[in-house]
Specification:
This protein is of the alpha+beta class and 330 residues long. It has eight helices and 13 strands. The strands form six sheets. Strands 12-11-13 form a three-stranded parallel sheet, sandwiched between helices. It has a two-stranded antiparallel sheet with strand order 1-3. A two-stranded antiparallel ribbon has the order 2-4.
């Protein structure tokens, strides 16, 4: 808050302004009314309407207000600002950033018209002195303006919109380390409900008296990593029981899959088999995908919303073809 308190008592030109107190550590000392002071911290003289108090404005001895001159008195000519006054006025009135001509890789070359941020800020180190939180916010906010617009990023899945109430729920829970399920049981219960909603939405083979098994993740990349590991461990355990080699697993995907599938294959030592796309058909062909499946295939990845075009792949056809092949090959 910024709170103003009216002060009483006789005022003079040299009397400090004690009527306004800011909830900030930068404005703790009284400010001189006439703008006098030492150093760069001197405030700009207050001139209502651009006229100096000495040129026709008078202060009331009982109120900390400025009283206009009598109507019959002509307005004096506007005084030209002294040297340096415009600089101080700009520093007090504007928060402006500009590109610095100094090219330094180790400093953030963003200077604000404020006496608190006149020096370059180190890029990779903590600064020696703090700056106002408003200035820090503005510096980071201005840099982020160089990012792309997520709503226009058609190569990802961040173009959707949520109601503001969803944003409020997220921000209200952002400080919860909800992996600690004993500490946050309600959040865990809400997660389990969402898992079951998604399972029923995609017709998972669960009975009415059963609950789906799943987990919330930070995003689709983490979900793919965990799902891929589950497929790999299940396949390895089955191969061990059968006394067969289990060191060369593979997955089958279309060439249009997200890059996180390639990361999974590289991180967890799984061969990646990609179905090439064809002219006019920019999703995975289910027939070609099933042809690539062998005894070392741990899963076939289908996409509901291709990265390239947003198309849904033929999941049902793929599932029917895989079921038929499993019956033939065991």
């Amino acid at each position: 808050m910024v709170v103003s308190v009216a002060a009483t008592g006789a005022g003079t030109d040299a009397e400090p302004v004690t009527s306004t107190f800011f909830a900030s550590r930068y404005v703790r000392d009284p400010l001189p009314r006439d703008g006098s002071g030492s150093g760069s911290s001197s405030p700009v003289p207050f001139r209502p309407g651009g006229r100096a108090a000495a040129d026709g404005w008078a202060r009331s001895p009982r109120l900390p207000l400025l009283v206009a001159p009598p109507p019959h008195k002509p307005n004096p000519p506007r005084r030209q600002p002294a040297e340096g006054e415009w600089d101080r006025a700009a520093a007090a009135a504007m928060v402006l950033s500009h590109a610095s001509s100094i090219t330094r890789d180790d400093a953030v070359a963003c200077t604000f018209a404020s006496r608190y941020v006149r020096e370059h800020l180190p890029r990779y180190r903590m600064p020696e002195r703090s700056i106002p939180r408003e200035a820090a916010y503005q510096i980071i906010n201005d840099e982020l303006m160089l990012d792309g617009n997520p709503r226009l990023n058609l190569a990802s899945f961040v173009t959707t919109w949520m109601e503001p109430e969803c944003d409020k729920l997220i921000m209200g829970s952002i400080n919860k380390n909800y992996v600690d399920m004993d500490e946050y049981p309600v959040t865990t219960e809400l997660q389990n409900r969402c898992v079951n909603m998604i399972a029923h939405l995609f017709h998972a083979p669960i009975k009415e008296d059963e609950t789906a098994v799943g987990i919330g993740t930070v995003g689709s990349s983490e979900a793919i990593m965990l799902a891929g590991l589950a497929f790999k461990r299940k396949w390895q355990n089955k191969r061990k029981e059968q006394g067969k080699p289990y060191d060369k697993p593979n997955i089958v995907t279309g060439a249009n899959v997200q890059v996180c599938w390639e990361k999974f294959a590289r991180y967890f030592e799984v061969e990646l088999k990609e179905v090439k796309l064809s002219e006019g058909y920019y999703v995975m062909d289910p027939v070609k995908a099933v042809e690539m499946v062998d005894e070392n295939t741990i899963c076939v990845a289908a996409i509901l919303g291709s990265t390239l075009t947003g198309e849904f792949e033929e999941v049902k056809q793929l599932n029917d073809l895989l079921t038929e092949k499993n019956k033939e090959t065991g």
